[in-house]
Protein backbone atom coordinates (compact mmCIF):
# COMPACT_ATOMS: atom_id res chain seq x y z
CA UNK A 1 0.00 0.00 0.00
CA UNK A 2 1.08 3.59 -0.33
CA UNK A 3 1.51 5.88 2.65
CA UNK A 4 -1.34 7.98 1.31
CA UNK A 5 -3.70 5.03 1.35
CA UNK A 6 -2.58 4.11 4.86
CA UNK A 7 -4.30 7.16 6.31
CA UNK A 8 -7.48 6.57 4.37
CA UNK A 9 -10.33 4.28 5.32
CA UNK A 10 -10.01 0.52 5.05
CA UNK A 11 -10.81 -0.41 1.47
CA UNK A 12 -9.23 -3.66 0.38
CA UNK A 13 -8.82 -4.21 -3.35
CA UNK A 14 -7.34 -6.88 -5.60
CA UNK A 15 -4.54 -6.17 -8.07
CA UNK A 16 -3.69 -8.89 -10.39
CA UNK A 17 -2.25 -6.98 -11.93
CA UNK A 18 11.52 -6.34 -28.50
CA UNK A 19 16.81 -8.20 -31.45
CA UNK A 20 19.70 -10.33 -32.33
CA UNK A 21 20.90 -13.90 -32.56
CA UNK A 22 22.75 -15.59 -29.71
CA UNK A 23 23.07 -19.10 -28.42
CA UNK A 24 24.73 -20.62 -25.41
CA UNK A 25 24.57 -24.17 -24.11
CA UNK A 26 25.82 -25.26 -20.71
CA UNK A 27 25.39 -28.82 -19.55
CA UNK A 28 26.71 -31.26 -17.01
CA UNK A 29 26.23 -34.85 -15.99
CA UNK A 30 24.16 -34.44 -12.86
CA UNK A 31 24.81 -37.94 -11.62
CA UNK A 32 27.14 -40.87 -12.22
CA UNK A 33 24.67 -42.46 -14.64
CA UNK A 34 25.31 -40.81 -18.03
CA UNK A 35 21.61 -41.10 -18.83
CA UNK A 36 20.77 -38.55 -16.20
CA UNK A 37 21.89 -35.48 -18.08
CA UNK A 38 20.70 -32.06 -16.95
CA UNK A 39 21.15 -29.34 -19.55
CA UNK A 40 20.36 -25.63 -19.76
CA UNK A 41 19.95 -24.09 -23.19
CA UNK A 42 19.07 -20.61 -24.37
CA UNK A 43 18.86 -18.78 -27.69
CA UNK A 44 17.78 -15.31 -28.75
CA UNK A 45 17.13 -15.60 -32.48
CA UNK A 46 14.47 -13.33 -33.88
CA UNK A 47 12.71 -16.37 -35.32
CA UNK A 48 11.56 -18.88 -32.70
CA UNK A 49 11.90 -21.70 -35.24
CA UNK A 50 15.55 -20.82 -35.86
CA UNK A 51 16.16 -20.62 -32.11
CA UNK A 52 14.67 -24.07 -31.47
CA UNK A 53 16.51 -25.57 -34.47
CA UNK A 54 19.81 -24.26 -33.10
CA UNK A 55 19.14 -25.71 -29.68
CA UNK A 56 18.10 -29.12 -30.96
CA UNK A 57 21.06 -29.41 -33.36
CA UNK A 58 23.58 -28.90 -30.57
CA UNK A 59 21.93 -31.02 -27.91
CA UNK A 60 21.43 -34.73 -27.31
CA UNK A 61 17.97 -35.82 -28.36
CA UNK A 62 15.04 -37.13 -26.36
CA UNK A 63 14.78 -35.93 -22.77
CA UNK A 64 12.23 -37.07 -20.21
CA UNK A 65 11.45 -33.52 -19.07
CA UNK A 66 11.57 -30.23 -20.97
CA UNK A 67 10.88 -27.00 -19.06
CA UNK A 68 10.59 -23.86 -21.18
CA UNK A 69 10.44 -20.09 -20.71
CA UNK A 70 9.78 -17.83 -23.71
CA UNK A 71 9.95 -14.04 -23.62
CA UNK A 72 6.88 -12.08 -24.64
CA UNK A 73 9.01 -10.21 -27.19
CA UNK A 74 8.12 -12.88 -29.78
CA UNK A 75 5.20 -12.38 -32.15
CA UNK A 76 1.95 -14.34 -32.01
CA UNK A 77 2.92 -16.54 -34.99
CA UNK A 78 6.01 -17.64 -33.06
CA UNK A 79 4.26 -18.24 -29.74
CA UNK A 80 1.59 -20.41 -31.40
CA UNK A 81 4.08 -22.99 -32.71
CA UNK A 82 6.35 -23.27 -29.65
CA UNK A 83 5.00 -26.33 -27.80
CA UNK A 84 4.35 -28.43 -30.90
CA UNK A 85 7.72 -27.56 -32.46
CA UNK A 86 9.65 -28.17 -29.25
CA UNK A 87 7.76 -31.39 -28.69
CA UNK A 88 8.65 -32.65 -32.16
CA UNK A 89 12.34 -31.76 -31.75
CA UNK A 90 13.06 -33.03 -28.22
CA UNK A 91 10.27 -35.63 -27.84
CA UNK A 92 10.02 -35.26 -24.04
CA UNK A 93 7.66 -37.34 -21.94
CA UNK A 94 6.63 -34.07 -20.29
CA UNK A 95 6.88 -30.47 -21.53
CA UNK A 96 5.82 -27.53 -19.40
CA UNK A 97 6.39 -23.80 -19.45
CA UNK A 98 4.96 -20.40 -20.23
CA UNK A 99 5.45 -16.97 -21.75
CA UNK A 100 7.33 -14.66 -19.35
CA UNK A 101 8.47 -11.03 -19.40
CA UNK A 102 12.14 -11.84 -19.96
CA UNK A 103 14.37 -14.89 -19.87
CA UNK A 104 17.90 -15.23 -18.61
CA UNK A 105 20.28 -15.62 -21.56
CA UNK A 106 23.33 -17.79 -20.85
CA UNK A 107 25.64 -15.51 -22.85
CA UNK A 108 29.33 -14.99 -22.19
CA UNK A 109 29.30 -11.81 -24.22
CA UNK A 110 29.10 -8.82 -21.88
CA UNK A 111 27.42 -6.67 -24.52
CA UNK A 112 24.24 -5.49 -22.81
CA UNK A 113 22.31 -5.93 -26.06
CA UNK A 114 22.89 -9.66 -25.69
CA UNK A 115 21.24 -9.62 -22.29
CA UNK A 116 17.97 -7.85 -23.00
CA UNK A 117 15.83 -10.77 -21.90
CA UNK A 118 14.62 -11.75 -25.39
CA UNK A 119 14.68 -15.41 -26.31
CA UNK A 120 13.84 -18.94 -25.26
CA UNK A 121 15.31 -20.83 -22.31
CA UNK A 122 15.15 -24.59 -21.70
CA UNK A 123 15.93 -26.89 -18.82
CA UNK A 124 16.20 -30.47 -20.08
CA UNK A 125 16.59 -33.46 -17.82
CA UNK A 126 16.27 -37.21 -17.52
CA UNK A 127 14.72 -38.24 -14.24
CA UNK A 128 13.51 -41.74 -13.52
CA UNK A 129 10.96 -40.58 -10.98
CA UNK A 130 8.85 -37.69 -12.28
CA UNK A 131 5.16 -36.94 -12.68
CA UNK A 132 3.95 -34.19 -15.01
CA UNK A 133 0.49 -32.72 -14.46
CA UNK A 134 -1.91 -29.92 -15.33
CA UNK A 135 -5.00 -28.75 -13.47
CA UNK A 136 -7.81 -26.18 -13.67
CA UNK A 137 -7.39 -25.72 -17.42
CA UNK A 138 -11.10 -26.22 -18.17
CA UNK A 139 -14.48 -25.87 -16.51
CA UNK A 140 -15.61 -23.46 -13.78
CA UNK A 141 -12.88 -22.05 -11.59
CA UNK A 142 -13.25 -20.58 -8.13
CA UNK A 143 -11.62 -17.14 -7.94
CA UNK A 144 -9.81 -17.93 -4.72
CA UNK A 145 -8.07 -14.62 -4.11
CA UNK A 146 -10.79 -12.29 -5.33
CA UNK A 147 -13.32 -13.89 -2.95
CA UNK A 148 -11.34 -13.54 0.27
CA UNK A 149 -11.68 -11.37 3.39
CA UNK A 150 -12.08 -7.68 2.57
CA UNK A 151 -13.39 -8.55 -0.88
CA UNK A 152 -16.44 -10.60 0.08
CA UNK A 153 -19.73 -9.46 -1.37
CA UNK A 154 -22.49 -8.25 0.88
CA UNK A 155 -25.19 -10.74 1.89
CA UNK A 156 -27.69 -9.03 -0.43
CA UNK A 157 -25.29 -9.37 -3.38
CA UNK A 158 -24.70 -13.03 -2.55
CA UNK A 159 -28.42 -13.75 -2.45
CA UNK A 160 -28.81 -12.19 -5.91
CA UNK A 161 -25.93 -14.27 -7.30
CA UNK A 162 -27.13 -17.87 -7.66
CA UNK A 163 -23.61 -19.29 -8.05
CA UNK A 164 -22.28 -17.47 -4.99
CA UNK A 165 -25.39 -18.33 -2.97
CA UNK A 166 -24.97 -22.04 -3.67
CA UNK A 167 -21.39 -21.90 -2.37
CA UNK A 168 -22.11 -19.58 0.54
CA UNK A 169 -21.46 -20.93 4.03
CA UNK A 170 -21.42 -18.50 6.96
CA UNK A 171 -19.12 -20.86 8.88
CA UNK A 172 -16.40 -20.32 6.28
CA UNK A 173 -16.19 -16.62 7.13
CA UNK A 174 -13.90 -17.52 10.02
CA UNK A 175 -11.14 -18.18 7.46
CA UNK A 176 -10.05 -16.40 4.29
CA UNK A 177 -9.06 -19.61 2.55
CA UNK A 178 -11.96 -21.99 3.14
CA UNK A 179 -13.33 -22.98 -0.26
CA UNK A 180 -14.99 -26.09 -1.75
CA UNK A 181 -12.67 -28.97 -2.76
CA UNK A 182 -9.74 -27.13 -1.25
CA UNK A 183 -7.43 -30.16 -1.13
CA UNK A 184 -8.13 -31.75 -4.51
CA UNK A 185 -5.23 -33.04 -6.67
CA UNK A 186 -4.84 -33.96 -10.36
CA UNK A 187 -4.76 -37.69 -11.05
CA UNK A 188 -0.98 -37.85 -11.56
CA UNK A 189 -0.36 -36.48 -8.06
CA UNK A 190 -3.08 -38.64 -6.52
CA UNK A 191 -1.06 -41.66 -7.68
CA UNK A 192 2.00 -40.35 -5.81
CA UNK A 193 -0.10 -39.71 -2.72
CA UNK A 194 -1.58 -43.21 -2.80
CA UNK A 195 1.93 -44.65 -3.04
CA UNK A 196 3.09 -42.50 -0.10
CA UNK A 197 5.64 -40.80 -2.37
CA UNK A 198 6.58 -37.28 -1.27
CA UNK A 199 8.30 -35.46 -4.19
CA UNK A 200 11.52 -33.61 -3.44
CA UNK A 201 10.70 -30.77 -5.81
CA UNK A 202 7.56 -29.55 -7.59
CA UNK A 203 8.12 -27.05 -10.44
CA UNK A 204 5.10 -24.94 -11.47
CA UNK A 205 3.89 -22.40 -14.03
CA UNK A 206 0.47 -20.88 -13.52
CA UNK A 207 -2.11 -18.23 -14.21
CA UNK A 208 -2.91 -15.65 -11.51
CA UNK A 209 -5.05 -18.01 -9.42
CA UNK A 210 -2.78 -20.84 -8.15
CA UNK A 211 -3.70 -20.30 -4.49
CA UNK A 212 -6.24 -23.08 -3.99
CA UNK A 213 -3.94 -25.58 -5.71
CA UNK A 214 -0.94 -24.44 -3.65
CA UNK A 215 -2.90 -25.12 -0.48
CA UNK A 216 -3.65 -28.60 -1.80
CA UNK A 217 0.05 -29.22 -2.48
CA UNK A 218 1.00 -28.06 1.00
CA UNK A 219 -1.70 -30.25 2.53
CA UNK A 220 -0.67 -33.43 0.70
CA UNK A 221 3.08 -32.81 0.26
CA UNK A 222 4.10 -30.52 3.14
CA UNK A 223 7.83 -31.31 2.98
CA UNK A 224 8.18 -30.96 -0.80
CA UNK A 225 9.93 -27.86 -2.11
CA UNK A 226 7.92 -25.87 -4.65
CA UNK A 227 9.20 -23.26 -7.08
CA UNK A 228 7.49 -21.63 -10.02
CA UNK A 229 6.32 -18.52 -11.78
CA UNK A 230 3.05 -16.80 -12.63
CA UNK A 231 3.15 -16.33 -16.39
CA UNK A 232 3.18 -12.86 -17.83
CA UNK A 233 -0.16 -11.42 -18.98
CA UNK A 234 -0.58 -11.93 -22.75
CA UNK A 235 -3.99 -10.51 -23.78
CA UNK A 236 -2.41 -7.97 -26.16
CA UNK A 237 -0.03 -10.61 -27.57
CA UNK A 238 -2.16 -13.73 -28.01
CA UNK A 239 -5.66 -12.55 -27.12
CA UNK A 240 -5.58 -14.83 -24.07
CA UNK A 241 -4.90 -13.83 -20.44
CA UNK A 242 -1.94 -16.23 -20.19
CA UNK A 243 0.02 -18.54 -22.49
CA UNK A 244 0.89 -21.77 -20.70
CA UNK A 245 2.52 -24.80 -22.38
CA UNK A 246 1.71 -28.43 -21.62
CA UNK A 247 3.20 -31.03 -23.96
CA UNK A 248 2.11 -29.88 -27.45
CA UNK A 249 -0.74 -27.65 -26.25
CA UNK A 250 -1.19 -24.00 -25.25
CA UNK A 251 -3.64 -23.15 -22.46
CA UNK A 252 -4.93 -19.75 -21.37
CA UNK A 253 -5.46 -20.74 -17.73
CA UNK A 254 -4.59 -23.32 -15.09
CA UNK A 255 -1.49 -24.63 -13.36
CA UNK A 256 1.06 -26.91 -15.03
CA UNK A 257 3.99 -28.61 -13.39
CA UNK A 258 6.19 -31.60 -12.74
CA UNK A 259 6.96 -33.41 -9.48
CA UNK A 260 10.53 -34.75 -9.20
CA UNK A 261 11.48 -37.45 -6.72
CA UNK A 262 15.10 -38.25 -5.89
CA UNK A 263 16.48 -41.76 -6.25
CA UNK A 264 19.05 -41.08 -3.54
CA UNK A 265 19.39 -38.53 -0.68
CA UNK A 266 22.15 -36.65 -2.55
CA UNK A 267 20.41 -36.36 -5.91
CA UNK A 268 19.13 -32.84 -5.26
CA UNK A 269 20.73 -30.24 -3.02
CA UNK A 270 17.74 -27.96 -3.43
CA UNK A 271 19.42 -25.00 -1.75
CA UNK A 272 16.85 -22.21 -1.62
CA UNK A 273 17.74 -18.52 -1.42
CA UNK A 274 15.19 -15.69 -1.33
CA UNK A 275 16.23 -12.04 -1.63
CA UNK A 276 14.21 -8.81 -1.40
CA UNK A 277 16.70 -6.09 -2.49
CA UNK A 278 14.01 -3.41 -2.82
CA UNK A 279 12.88 -3.56 0.83
CA UNK A 280 14.20 -1.90 3.97
CA UNK A 281 13.17 -2.76 7.54
CA UNK A 282 11.02 -0.54 9.76
CA UNK A 283 11.87 -1.17 13.42
CA UNK A 284 12.03 -4.46 15.31
CA UNK A 285 9.74 -7.50 15.01
CA UNK A 286 6.24 -7.15 16.48
CA UNK A 287 3.66 -9.64 17.72
CA UNK A 288 0.12 -9.99 16.39
CA UNK A 289 -2.07 -9.90 19.47
CA UNK A 290 -5.44 -9.80 17.69
CA UNK A 291 -6.44 -10.65 14.13
CA UNK A 292 -9.17 -12.10 11.94
CA UNK A 293 -8.43 -13.73 8.60
CA UNK A 294 -5.96 -11.43 6.85
CA UNK A 295 -6.82 -8.39 9.00
CA UNK A 296 -4.51 -7.34 11.86
CA UNK A 297 -6.54 -5.80 14.68
CA UNK A 298 -3.78 -5.36 17.27
CA UNK A 299 0.04 -5.31 17.13
CA UNK A 300 1.82 -5.58 20.46
CA UNK A 301 -1.57 -4.89 22.04
CA UNK A 302 -2.07 -1.53 20.34
CA UNK A 303 -3.52 0.13 17.21
CA UNK A 304 -1.43 -1.39 14.36
CA UNK A 305 -1.86 1.47 11.88
CA UNK A 306 -0.95 4.13 14.43
CA UNK A 307 2.01 2.01 15.53
CA UNK A 308 3.23 1.78 11.93
CA UNK A 309 2.88 5.53 11.40
CA UNK A 310 4.80 6.19 14.62
CA UNK A 311 7.63 3.88 13.56
CA UNK A 312 7.88 5.60 10.18
CA UNK A 313 8.90 8.79 11.99
CA UNK A 314 12.11 7.11 13.16
CA UNK A 315 13.26 5.85 9.75
CA UNK A 316 16.65 7.39 8.90
CA UNK A 317 16.09 7.42 5.15
CA UNK A 318 13.75 10.40 4.94
CA UNK A 319 14.07 10.39 1.15
CA UNK A 320 11.71 7.44 1.00
CA UNK A 321 8.82 9.25 2.66
CA UNK A 322 6.23 10.11 0.06
CA UNK A 323 2.54 9.57 -0.45
CA UNK A 324 3.30 6.74 -2.87
CA UNK A 325 5.68 4.75 -0.66
CA UNK A 326 4.67 1.08 -0.64
CA UNK A 327 4.57 -0.75 2.68
CA UNK A 328 5.06 -4.47 3.27
CA UNK A 329 4.90 -6.93 6.13
CA UNK A 330 6.93 -10.09 6.67
CA UNK A 331 5.32 -13.01 8.50
CA UNK A 332 7.58 -15.30 10.51
CA UNK A 333 6.84 -18.99 10.77
CA UNK A 334 4.00 -19.02 13.28
CA UNK A 335 5.57 -21.97 15.11
CA UNK A 336 8.64 -19.93 16.07
CA UNK A 337 9.03 -18.64 19.61
CA UNK A 338 9.84 -15.04 20.52
CA UNK A 339 13.55 -15.64 20.90
CA UNK A 340 13.81 -17.98 17.93
CA UNK A 341 12.78 -15.80 15.01
CA UNK A 342 14.26 -17.26 11.82
CA UNK A 343 14.69 -14.70 9.03
CA UNK A 344 14.74 -17.49 6.44
CA UNK A 345 11.08 -18.26 7.23
CA UNK A 346 9.82 -14.75 6.41
CA UNK A 347 6.96 -14.59 3.93
CA UNK A 348 6.49 -11.02 2.67
CA UNK A 349 3.20 -9.46 1.55
CA UNK A 350 2.03 -5.99 0.66
CA UNK A 351 0.01 -4.05 3.23
CA UNK A 352 -3.03 -3.36 1.11
CA UNK A 353 -4.81 -0.84 3.33
CA UNK A 354 -5.18 0.56 6.82
CA UNK A 355 -7.14 2.99 8.95
CA UNK A 356 -5.53 4.88 11.86
CA UNK A 357 -8.96 5.40 13.49
CA UNK A 358 -10.19 1.82 13.30
CA UNK A 359 -6.64 0.58 13.67
CA UNK A 360 -6.98 -2.27 11.19
CA UNK A 361 -4.24 -3.30 8.76
CA UNK A 362 -5.23 -5.47 5.78
CA UNK A 363 -2.52 -7.81 4.46
CA UNK A 364 -2.62 -9.02 0.85
CA UNK A 365 -2.34 -12.69 1.78
CA UNK A 366 -4.38 -15.84 1.30
CA UNK A 367 -3.13 -17.22 4.61
CA UNK A 368 -4.93 -16.84 7.91
CA UNK A 369 -2.91 -14.71 10.31
CA UNK A 370 -2.50 -16.10 13.83
CA UNK A 371 -2.45 -14.50 17.22
CA UNK A 372 1.04 -14.71 18.68
CA UNK A 373 2.64 -14.69 15.24
CA UNK A 374 5.63 -12.35 14.85
CA UNK A 375 5.94 -9.93 11.94
CA UNK A 376 8.43 -7.44 10.52
CA UNK A 377 7.49 -4.19 8.73
CA UNK A 378 9.17 -2.95 5.53
CA UNK A 379 9.02 -0.07 3.06
CA UNK A 380 9.96 -0.21 -0.63
CA UNK A 381 13.06 1.82 -1.45
CA UNK A 382 13.24 4.07 -4.49
CA UNK A 383 16.25 2.12 -5.75
CA UNK A 384 16.98 -1.58 -5.06
CA UNK A 385 20.29 -2.59 -3.50
CA UNK A 386 23.20 -2.86 -5.92
CA UNK A 387 24.35 -5.98 -4.06
CA UNK A 388 22.03 -8.48 -5.70
CA UNK A 389 21.47 -12.18 -5.43
CA UNK A 390 24.29 -13.29 -7.71
CA UNK A 391 26.90 -11.80 -5.37
CA UNK A 392 25.77 -14.19 -2.64
CA UNK A 393 25.89 -17.33 -4.76
CA UNK A 394 29.05 -19.41 -5.01
CA UNK A 395 30.50 -20.14 -8.45
CA UNK A 396 29.47 -23.74 -9.04
CA UNK A 397 30.20 -24.61 -12.66
CA UNK A 398 28.95 -28.17 -12.19
CA UNK A 399 25.59 -27.12 -10.79
CA UNK A 400 22.40 -25.69 -12.26
CA UNK A 401 20.23 -22.99 -10.76
CA UNK A 402 16.60 -22.14 -11.31
CA UNK A 403 16.38 -18.36 -10.80
CA UNK A 404 13.06 -16.52 -10.91
CA UNK A 405 12.55 -12.80 -10.41
CA UNK A 406 9.62 -10.46 -9.87
CA UNK A 407 9.46 -7.46 -12.21
CA UNK A 408 8.86 -3.96 -10.90
CA UNK A 409 5.35 -3.52 -12.31
CA UNK A 410 5.64 0.27 -12.42
CA UNK A 411 8.66 0.24 -14.74
CA UNK A 412 8.61 -3.36 -16.05
CA UNK A 413 12.26 -3.48 -14.95
CA UNK A 414 13.95 -6.75 -13.99
CA UNK A 415 17.41 -5.46 -13.11
CA UNK A 416 18.32 -8.29 -10.77
CA UNK A 417 17.72 -10.92 -13.45
CA UNK A 418 19.77 -9.15 -16.11
CA UNK A 419 22.78 -8.62 -13.81
CA UNK A 420 23.22 -12.29 -13.01
CA UNK A 421 26.61 -13.93 -13.40
CA UNK A 422 26.97 -15.18 -16.97
CA UNK A 423 29.21 -18.08 -15.97
CA UNK A 424 26.44 -20.05 -14.32
CA UNK A 425 24.17 -22.79 -15.65
CA UNK A 426 20.93 -20.91 -15.21
CA UNK A 427 17.33 -21.57 -16.17
CA UNK A 428 15.70 -18.30 -15.32
CA UNK A 429 12.96 -15.81 -16.05
CA UNK A 430 11.15 -12.78 -14.70
CA UNK A 431 7.43 -12.06 -14.52
CA UNK A 432 5.20 -9.10 -13.74
CA UNK A 433 2.73 -11.32 -11.89
CA UNK A 434 4.89 -12.98 -9.26
CA UNK A 435 6.94 -16.03 -8.36
CA UNK A 436 5.91 -19.14 -6.42
CA UNK A 437 8.02 -20.05 -3.39
CA UNK A 438 7.66 -23.07 -1.14
CA UNK A 439 10.61 -24.22 0.97
CA UNK A 440 8.91 -27.37 2.19
CA UNK A 441 9.66 -28.26 5.82
CA UNK A 442 5.92 -27.88 6.51
CA UNK A 443 6.11 -24.17 5.61
CA UNK A 444 3.43 -22.44 3.52
CA UNK A 445 3.89 -22.00 -0.23
CA UNK A 446 3.23 -18.41 -1.32
CA UNK A 447 3.24 -16.07 -4.31
CA UNK A 448 5.81 -13.29 -3.97
CA UNK A 449 4.84 -9.95 -5.58
CA UNK A 450 7.61 -7.79 -4.09
CA UNK A 451 9.44 -5.92 -6.90
CA UNK A 452 12.93 -7.30 -7.70
CA UNK A 453 12.53 -10.22 -5.30
CA UNK A 454 14.40 -13.28 -6.51
CA UNK A 455 14.14 -16.98 -5.69
CA UNK A 456 17.08 -19.25 -6.47
CA UNK A 457 17.08 -23.04 -6.21
CA UNK A 458 20.29 -25.04 -6.67
CA UNK A 459 20.15 -28.38 -8.47
CA UNK A 460 23.21 -30.61 -8.30
CA UNK A 461 24.58 -34.04 -7.50
How large is the radius of gyration? 22 Å
Largest sheet: 7 strands, mixed
What integer is the average pLDDT?
A: 78
Strand order across the biggest sheet? Answer: 1-2-6-3-4-10-11
Tell me how many strands there are.
24
Strand content: 25-35%
Measured as a percent range, the helix fraction is: 10-25%
Structural class: alpha+beta
Q: What count of helical segments does DSSP give?
A: 10
Low-confidence stretches: 6-35, 108-114, 147-158
Number of domains: 3
Distance between the termini: 43 Å
The general outline is globular
Give a quick summary of the entry.
This protein is α+β, with helices and mostly antiparallel strands. It has helices at residues 3-6, 48-57, 76-79, 82-90, 155-160, 162-167, 187-194, 211-220, 304-312, 415-418; strands at 23-29, 37-43, 65-71, 94-100, 102-103, 120-125, 130-135, 201-206, 225-230, 244-246, 249-251, 255-260, 271-275, 279-292, 295-299, 327-331, 347-354, 361-363, 374-380, 400-406, 425-431, 435-438, 446-448, 454-459.
